[in-house]
Amino acid sequence: MQERRFACASDELEPGTSMTVPGDPPVAVFRNEAGDFFATADTCTHEDWSLGTDSDLDDEEVTCPLHMARFDIRTGKPLCFPATVALATFEVEVAADGRVYVVV
Amino acid sequence: MTTLIVGASVAGIRTAQALRMVGHRDAITLIGEELHQPYDKPPLSKECLAEPGEPVPLLSNDDLVALDVELRLGVRATSLDAERRVVRTSTGESFDYDRLVIATGVTPRSLPGAQHLAGVHTVRTYDDAAAVRASLAAGRRVVVVGGGFIGAEVASAARAQGLPVDLVEPQDVPMTHLFGVEVATEISRLHELNGTVVHAGVGVAGLEGDGGVTGVRLTDGRRLDADLVVVGIGAAPATDWLLGSGLPVDDGVLCDEQLRVIGFPDVYAAGDVARWPMPFGERPVRVEHWTNANEHAALVAATITGGAPPRPQPPYVWSDQYGRRIQIVGTPRAGRAARLVGSVTEAAFVAIFADDDGRTVGALVLDDARTLMRCRKAVAARTPVCELQLGVPAAVRA
Ligand SMILES: Cc1cc2nc3c(=O)[nH]c(=O)nc-3n(C[C@H](O)[C@H](O)[C@H](O)COP(=O)(O)OP(=O)(O)OC[C@H]3O[C@@H](n4cnc5c(N)ncnc54)[C@H](O)[C@@H]3O)c2cc1C
Ligand code: FES
């Protein structure tokens, strides 16, 4: 069953930042410098850390601050150790009224 | 073609994984001295001291099978013949190789007389950690020798279990050599705040006991009662098996920027044992950090397969003490503390280190991951400290 979960209003999320959308599973929503939105699983696949709440976004690369694993937010792919497992990715929909949803 | 990896811990296992990830199809043999399935080291002085359990595996059984390596545990390399390309082992076997990766890490230093006394431990292996945990559970009187990361983590684990802890540290303030006296003083307040008694500026004159340890004599004449002594006074590269091999060994195996052992084109080194000119440093150094071992593994795999080397990352290390997380990025000792925010009695504490030109070379951050990541960027870009935007440290995040 697909769920369309409200994330934020698009102007609430600054380019180059991220947020966590609570739920099961929690989802990280990222906005790159170009203003595009991407969504992945919120929890780092290495141990346990919320990437939406606390991480470092550099272009399309997110770094986990616990042990510095990096992922591509477009594909979820791990880019370096200690991550070897990809993050699940989710579709993002920006509605006409500017509201941002993730499809989980 | 066979790639032989000696040392089956962080650097060794990650090298095998990285080789497979970049499509290396040759046979890989991994030999490791320890009997446990490859496990992770940082938990040894953290979770593993808190409760009984199992070592934290470096990879799952399925992943190990998928790796398609010949893993020989309980086998210690005893010598290397680099000309004939053979490693000999404690089991009397000879392992031929086309390429050799040295990943034997380090061996902890101990105190004279320690091997004859029960109750004196270092913490490097799971068996070490299990022995310390069992003694802690038996409610011992603990003396920790050495106020570095491992010593501090052991003290913290013992305090969490309500045991009395004395910590002996030769410097006037633990960690001064890494962070300078001002920042070291702030950080070592964590000990006092949590009831660890620090005896600083004093050394160990000897261990007392007959069979089992009963006390520690200090160089100032005092004596501390102890039935558990944990020694965390550093470690030496595990290169004894390379004696006579002709490899360049001088506080580690000397490597070039790509981790090729100098003068030996088919031999590589990775992790704590490798001394190399790291991208964010000046002269060849040995780095005993977990992320460094991970990064080395990826770099060695790229060097072996001729792939593009991974982008260098600033040095990083963390330590968990008394329920707080200390994170260090860059090389604080390459500069001076230039900006301090917060304190250990507040939600967070941040110390930024600058070189003589005022550029960021390192940071120590307590419980503020977001600021840490900002500092990491500043280290990579050598941003002037005065241009760094630092808010009031955020509240402790779970
Ligand atoms: C208790 C503890 C806590 C730590 N906590 C942190 C932390 O919080 N953060 C951090 O960044 N870093 C931490 N570290 C450091 C980090 O774990 C190391 O940097 C990392 O393990 C290095 O990996 P390595 O594979 O190079 O060496 P090691 O992990 O030491 O592995 C080397 C392996 O080689 C084997 N070996 C040695 N000689 C031979 C031989 N002759 N033949 C066959 N096998 C051999 C050894 O048995 C060992 O298994 C900690 C280390 C310890 C010990
Ligand atoms: S939890 Fe993210 S890198 Fe370890």
UniProtKB/TrEMBL annotation, chain A:
InterPro entries: Rieske_2Fe-2S (IPR017941), Rieske_2Fe-2S_sf (IPR036922). Keywords: 2Fe-2S, Iron, Iron-sulfur, Metal-binding. Residues 1-25 are annotated as: Disordered. Residues 5-101 form the Rieske domain. It comes from the Bacteria. It holds the Pfam family Rieske. GO terms for molecular function: 2 iron, 2 sulfur cluster binding; metal ion binding; monooxygenase activity; oxidoreductase activity, acting on paired donors, with incorporation or reduction of molecular oxygen. The keyword Iron applies. CDD domains: Rieske_RO_ferredoxin. This is Non-heme iron oxygenase ferredoxin subunit.
TrEMBL record, chain B:
SUPFAM superfamilies: FAD/NAD(P)-binding domain, FAD/NAD-linked reductases, dimerisation (C-terminal) domain. It comes from the Bacteria. Residues 3-297 form the FAD/NAD(P)-binding domain. Pfam families: Pyr_redox_2, Reductase_C. Signal peptide: none annotated. Keywords: FAD, Flavoprotein, Oxidoreductase. Residues 316-390 form the Reductase C-terminal domain. GO terms for molecular function: oxidoreductase activity, acting on NAD(P)H. Coiled coil: none annotated. Transmembrane segments: none annotated. Its cofactor is FAD. This is FAD-dependent oxidoreductase.
